Structures are given as C-alpha cells and as structure tokens.
Amino acid sequence: MRGIEEFRYLQIEATEWRRYLHRTPELEYGLYDSAKFVANKLASFGINHIETGIAETGVVAVIQGIRGDGPTIGLRTDMDALPIVEASNKPWTSENAGKMHACGHDGHTAMLLGAAKHLANTRSFKGTAVLIFQPAEEAGRGAERMVQGGLMERFGISRVFGMHNMPGIDIGKFGICDGAIMAALDEFDVIVKGKGGHAATPHLTVDPIVVAAQIVVGLQTLVSRNTDPTEALVISVTRLEAGQAYNIISDQVAIGGTVRTLSPSLRDFTERQIKVCAEGIAHGLGAEIEYKHRRLEPLTFNHTKETNQATDAARGLVGDGSVNDRVKPIMGSEDFAYMLQARSGAFIFLGNGPSAGLHHPAYDFDDEALPYGIGYWVNLVEKSLAV
C-alpha cells in the first residue's frame, strides 16, 4: 500500500477546492453550485461516468479499474453546510450569510475529489469504485433518500465506506472500531396539559410548569437508575416552552429533546419508558400529557470484515501506531448509518487536530489533513479491490 508521501502532491490543489467550497456553503438539498463544482472537477479528471441530480443534488462518479472484473465498492462523502454564522475569521470565511461549513464537509468533499483524481489516473485495481457525493447529511437524511432511491442496486455496490474528520484526534491519525461507532438519534415531544389561572392563586390551578420541571428531572433517572451503567444512554431536554406573562399560570408546557443510544434494545426501552415516566409524574400531580417519539438516524454500525479492511488501509498509509482500532464510540449520530443498513461497510474518523469542535462557529477544517484522507481512500480502493 501507498504511504502518505505519495499523496502530498495533491495538497495544494485540494486546499484550493476546499477553501472555495468553504467560502460558498449551501444547505441540505440546495447544493446546486457545490454539485456543479464537484461534477465539473470529476469530468476534468477524465471520468466519463458521472451522474447528477440523485436525491436532487447528489453526484455519483464511477471509476473502472484496469486490472479486470471485480466487485464494486462505494466511497461516500457529504457536501452540505450548516445554518450557523461563521466566527473563524479565516481569509476563506463563508460569503453566504448565515451559512458555514461547521462540520468539515468541505474538507470531506475535497478529499474524495483528490482520491478521484488519483484513482482516475492510476486505475490500479480490479472492479469498480463508486464515489458518492451526498446532499443533506445534517438535517435532510440525504443518505436515506439515496438508499431508498435505489443507489446500491443502480450502481451494483456490494460494500460501502464513509469517513468523518474529528477534532481532538491528531492530524495524521485515525480512529475506528468494530460494531457501534456512532449513536442512534431519536427526538421526543411531551405536551403537559394542566389548568391555568392567576399566579396569585396557584392552589386553584394545575401548574404545568411545576409538572414539567418534575418530568425533566425524572427523565434523568432513566439514565442513572434504569440503565445498565456499562451501556451508553443520553437523554437531553433541549426545549421547554410555557407562558409569556409573569402573572399567569399557563394551561400547558411543551418539552422537547433528543435520545442517543448505542443498542437497539436500549433504544426500544427509552422510547417506551419516556412516556411511562412522563405520564406517571403528570397523573400524580393532576395533569395529562401528549407524547410523540420520532426515530431519526439509526445506529452507525461497522461490520467486522470491512472494519478490518479500513483499518489496514489506514495503517498502510500512516503506520500501526497512528491508527486506534478501538476508538470509543461517540454519542453523535450520522446518516451514513442508512447506507450501512443497506450494505456492509465501515465508518472511520480522521484527525482534525486541536480545532474548535464540530458545529461550532469558530470551527475550520485543517487543510493539513487533506492528503491523509485522500491517501486513505486510495489505499482502501486498492486494498479492497486488490490486483
């Protein structure tokens, strides 16, 4: 396999791509300029099988190896930005007001473009590499839409791989693990219905704010007293909306939040028990509730064979000591999980150094990481589709 020095020649060009994309961020499915930029670059590399308009603005490129027939693997990246006002103060700061690449998808796109250029030039593998440039990872479930649209069947993909930068991991290092690597994501809403009235006569009301406060605290016992301490569960209440006047006790309160889990059984338990807990507290205090639970991204689960292939590809690039194959799973979610439900595969973390955290206004992708991502993709293709 190829070491990192073989890919540094692409860093200057990939940096230009990355910074252009950073200056011109787009959201969800509205990636018209980004998709056009990607498709034009792919065509300039001599790739003649490029399809656009998949899940509105997704782009897929097909690169055939020159070593004969073989399987087809998918390499997926994401292209969308976030609705955040940028505070990085870099020369390439976003020029689109209220939008920024706060999760590094600009870097992800540039790395897969760099790998595309290299692979299109060498084609030193059997079979086919399918490069997937996905819209709407952040909020629109673009991976699910691509899968439901027949992506895997249409391009004959047998295995699929993804990658994400990770602040806090050193540049040039990778993290991966077998099994669960990122959490499933659910959302819930609880409407507490009480009896409103004058703030001076609370005894004549059923105060939904007091009930809601007890529910917020009570939900944390599902983590601290109802869940095996060796299992990971996060229940975060992120919305609490009630009345607007100082002297009025409102009729109802809206509670909303998210749930993160690393196992299907715990996910089922939490969906059921949030309602049981909220109902019990409300009824005990004379109130009623309405409850809604929405399952969003599933668990991001790495398959053993593909995890080993991804680990080998990274180690071939940077050496054994720079690849942690037992990285701790994180409780963030990732819609690449839908692709891992459709096909076996693996998801890996790439170090972004001591940058600001993901989704932070001061975040910026570190361009020093670009050759590492490019080299990983190339090694993965050449390792998985060996000559």
Task: Please supply descriptive tags for the structure shown above.
four-stranded antiparallel beta sheet; 16 strands; 2 domains; Alpha-Beta Plaits; alpha/beta; 387 residues; elongated; Aminopeptidase
Describe this structure in words.
- With 387 residues, the chain is an alpha/beta fold.
- It folds into 2 domains: 4-182 and 299-384, Aminopeptidase; 184-295, Alpha-Beta Plaits.
- It has helices spanning 11-23, 32-44, 105-122, 142-148, 151-155, 208-219, 221-224, 264-284, 304-318, 337-342, 370-384; strands spanning 49-54, 58-64, 72-78, 128-134, 159-166, 174-175, 179-182, 184-193, 197-198, 233-241, 248-249, 252-261, 288-295, 300-302, 323-324, 344-351.
- The strands form 4 sheets. An 8-stranded mixed beta sheet has the order 1-2-4-3-5-16-6-15, with helices on both faces. It has a 4-stranded antiparallel beta sheet with strand order 10-12-8-13.
- Strand 1 (49-54) and strand 2 (58-64) form a beta hairpin.
- The radius of gyration is 24 Å and the shape is elongated.
- The mean pLDDT is 97.
Short description:
By secondary structure, the protein is α/β, with parallel strands linked by helices. Helices cover 33% and strands 25% of the residues. It has 2 domains: 4-182 and 299-384, 3-Layer(aba) Sandwich (Aminopeptidase), CATH 3.40.630; 184-295, Alpha-Beta Plaits (2-Layer Sandwich).
Structural class: alpha/beta
Tell me the number of structural domains: 2
Largest beta sheet, briefly?
8 strands, mixed
Radius of gyration (Å): 24 Å
CATH topology of the largest domain, by name, is Aminopeptidase
Q: Helical element count?
A: 11
* Quaternary organization: single chain
Residue-averaged pLDDT, rounded? 97
Number of strands: 16
- Give the class-level CATH name of the largest domain: Alpha Beta
General form = elongated
Q: Stretches where pLDDT falls below 50 for ≥5 residues?
A: none
Question: What string gives the helices and strands in order?
Answer: HHEEEHEHHEEEEEHHEEEHEEHEHEH
- Neighbour order of strands in the largest sheet: 1-2-4-3-5-16-6-15
Helix content: 25-40%
